[in-house]
Amino acid sequence: MKTENPKEQYRTNERVRAREVRLVGDNVEQGVYPISQALKIAEEQGLDLVEISPNAAPPVCRVIDYQKFLYQLRKKQKEQKAKSVKVVVKEIRFGPQTDDHDYNFKLKHAKGFLEEGSKVKAYVFFKGRSILFKEQGEVLLLRFASDLEEFGKLEQMPVLEGKRMTIMISPKKGAGTSAAKKQAAQKAKAEGTPREDVANDNDNE
After folding, report:
1. Model pTM?
2. Cα 183 to Cα 177: distance, rounded to the nearest angstrom
3. Which of 49, 101, 133, 173 could cross-link to 96 by cystine, CB 3.0-4.6 Å?
């Protein structure tokens, strides 16, 4: 779909077709004016008459610098586009009888995915007669979600779709930061008492 050019969204000056308009803004005396008078007010200020609500009765206009207005509009649209980050979904596959080594390996990867802001779609694939172990698969997925509780939030309970039982985990806001703090605290504890604490102990002697 073609994006509408902001420059073509607003009528300005002589392109405003209404016989009278309502002026708003801090730089004018607000009220309803004949179009000729509204154009004169804009001209006296060296600005443009810009129709911002054409469907109002009468249409609403502002007296502004139109080029500056367009610049600020484009800047705002660009900022909004930058904020609308595309959600990435990473998939992690298990078997119904995954061993601890494989489980921990995949758990580590899932933590990394959630810390970088991606969603994690974890599923157990039941091949052939392994569908008999679907309860075992559900337990595994719930354990996985529980082990990731600090990093992500479970969006739904395990759902069986064909040969797959699936859960979706979304990243928690600030999960990476809290995890980093926890690791730093554990590292400091492993290295011994911080120097500041030692100094305090000496002062108390």
Report:
1. 0.47
2. 10
3. 133
